Amino acid sequence: MSGLRKDFLWGGATAANQCEGGYLDGGKGLGTVDVIPWGEHRRAVMQGKLHYNALPEDAYFPSHEAIDMYHNYKEDIALFAEMGFKCYRFSFAWSRIFPTGLENEPNEEGLAFYEAFIDELLKYNIEPVVTICHFDVPLTLEQEYGSWRSRKLIDAYVKYCEVIFKRFNGKVKYWMTFNEINMLMHLPFMGAGIMFKEGENELQVKYQAAHNELVASALATKLAHEINPENKVGCMLAAGQFYPYSCKPEDVLEAMEKDRNNYFFIDVQSRGAYPAYAKKFLERNNIQLEVGADDERILRENTVDYIAFSYYTSRLASKDPNVGERTAGNVIATLKNPHLQASEWGWQIDPLGLRVTMNALYDRYQKPLFIVENGLGAVDVLGENETVEDDYRIAYLEAHIKEMIKAVELDGVDLLGYTTWGCIDLVSASTGEMKKRYGFIYVDKDNAGNGNLKRYKKKSFDWYKNVIANNGL
């Protein structure tokens, strides 16, 4: 037996800003991600270092069309159903429901779109798993308030949550408050719409934004449970264990501290309070948070139901700044691990690291886990037979799924489900590219936006269909 529960949620995952397109259709407003370009200026904008108004006139914004799922969702969902998806993780574009974020009433056209989308999933018995905020803040909220640096975003977010919890009550059970919430620390504008001013104390701004998001997440969790006690609300972490570069105690401590930097958000969302190490960090760095009178109680009383996370790679840490070579890894740069191979983008491939990470999270929180992103970004070539022979992707996913099953079967980890990232090709969040493909379904589009958007099944499509049909056996 595979050890996985009979109702295990196999599926795939995407984000509105990377696949939906239709960026102004149906009354949608601009989101922060809609002003992040492809190309040489992308990273600086995502970091909040270069203002989007300073971009050249010919800048290309891949989110504007993406793969146009907005107009093709029925075809795409039918393909997911053909693979046998038990669930599909996707996100709402906040600015499709509240175009500026300032409105008192939501945009009915946006709500109707998501209702039709969800109904299409339910038609095939696919469980919707909704990310409420996936790197997507109405641009007006950034312009008016500075996005999550302001506590005014808490009320705007809760207003948005109340609308969607009520509208989709009984249709959506699984929610996630923020995607990869810790990404705020690495790419502040992409993660939370934070744009820095010259000479500003960036740590102060980031931790204030983090606090505001944590309070908003707790209030959303409270609201979801009040509206329907059956609702399950999760947090979401960009995960991946840090290994010490050597057995030097200094390297071991450095790895532990880097893990803590990642866990900080989830510690609060899962345990309901700031951990001691975080309080000491704020104190050492003279970070004074604006904290509401009820914030501590709100955090304490409204912890999440499950821990969702992305896993692409493990990481390596050393106290010695001159040791080893560096490589990429889901935005967070790391030292090269000599024992691992890497993807074409330098992300190190470590299936066993998934099991290590699962155990670390489950030991720490004792709450059900949900792997909501895992996959291999690769350059795929569409052959003359109109498919992609992506054996490399099959090998990657198979190795990770085997370790996932061991964590459940041998280690006793409680796991709700597994959704591969980018189950259909989409725009890469980190690079803005289309050529960095993750999907089981090839989409005809290139980095510059050329292509007819036609969908083609890859070899991995039938492979994953078989995995799901046999519940991982």
Automatic annotation (TrEMBL):
One of its GO terms (cellular component) is cytosol. Coiled coil: none annotated. Keywords: Glycosidase, Hydrolase. InterPro entries: GH, GH_1_N_CS, Glyco_hydro_1, Glyco_hydro_1_AS. The active site is at E373 (nucleophile). Gene3D superfamilies: Glycosidases. Transmembrane segments: none annotated. It holds the Pfam family Glyco_hydro_1. One of its GO terms (biological process) is carbohydrate catabolic process. GO terms for molecular function: beta-glucosidase activity. Belongs to the glycosyl hydrolase 1 family. PANTHER family: 6-PHOSPHO-BETA-GLUCOSIDASE, GLYCOSYL HYDROLASE. This is 6-phospho-beta-glucosidase.
